[in-house]
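Run log, item B.
One chain of 72 residues. Sequence copied directly from the ordering sheet:
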Amino acid sequence: MWDMLRKEIHVLDPLCAQVAGAEQRHMTHQEAVSQIHTALFSCLNEFFTKWRCSAEKWKRKFPRITHDVFTR
């Protein structure tokens, strides 16, 4: 989820809140988020000539969206 005003990317994955493996989950998302972010701004720059938002220096957040613990 891209917050264009705050320049924040919120990755909504319920497994990111798990204590075990949280760092690995974050790393799993990093490459996909980077590719989507690049493609999004490529489209914005192509279709909206007066777009005034830079693709640089965006924060990535992994908010806790559940307190449930998931197991296999």
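Observations after the first pass:
- The radius of gyration is 15 Å.
- The chain has a mean pLDDT of 85.
Flagged for discussion on Thursday.
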